[in-house]
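Predict structure. Chain length: 332.
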Amino acid sequence: MMLVPTHHFRDIERKPEYLQPEKCTPPPFPGPAGTMWFIRDGCGIACAIVTWFLVLYAEFVVLFVMLIPSRDYVYSVINGIVFNLLAFLALASHCRAMLTDPGAVPKGNATKEFIESLQLKPGQVVYKCPKCCSIKPDRAHHCSVCKRCIRKMDHHCPWVNNCVGENNQKYFVLFTMYIALISLHALIMVGFHFLHCFEEDWTKCSSFSPPTTVILLILLCFEALLFLIFTSVMFGTQVHSICTDETGIERLQRKKQPREHSGSWKSVQEAFGGEFSLNWFNPFTRPCQPDTPIDKGLVRQVSSLSDMDNMETAETQSEETKERDSVEVLDE
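Prediction complete.
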């Protein structure tokens, strides 16, 4: 088997000439602040629509099959307010996770002028992503769906039609948490409704016919159980990644590229923004983090040529691992 040189996968050198900056067009003029981020991916858009449909279906069954026909008004009002509030927060978190820039690196910034402006010193190197022609910061990875390098990319989730990265991980965690909560709430209400209907006449416990009521409740029960398991696992995985300061991709390459982890509580504060408060659970507040400098993490320090080769080999093996484990990286 013929060995392919590592520079075939990643361009790394000290001098800008070796990065072939002439093949990179200058980065586009930045759009106005607050420009909406949206990935035009057919599969992701379809998954996002399905997500909203399933939440709205649960809303329909909970309101029109279980709560409104109920004679216990206090029970209906309390559960209606709680379920609708959680559903609203879940959909709001979904929108924020989908429409927030996850931490994309400026595209096409691997120009000769920009590389020279970094003023590399002996022992310093920069990486170029040959796919999006960008200088690749530390802990950034290229997403083949978003077609951009994403800072602290954890994975690409088709359910939110976006990558989960440095800037939108909070919203993704809130989305999984609120979906898990409304799924658990729906399961509990379905259980109580079945008990109530078994004790009384089925024709009096719903405005629909008994067969229709049973079918709607069984479908909701199946949906809620499935999403409770799925989102609970995703929520636990994301919280673990935040606490250990290790993304899903970095977990795959842990043995190849050991790195130092920051403190658990500090990592959580960085992800959710500041000291613990109710804003942690609010999808309408963004993490209170300073704007990321454009050259943050672009320059990497190596002590010797062998270290550079080791870094290059590890990154190449990481790319190959990502290709083999693409199903795991896309979404658990």
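Summary: The two ends are 33 Å apart (CA to CA).
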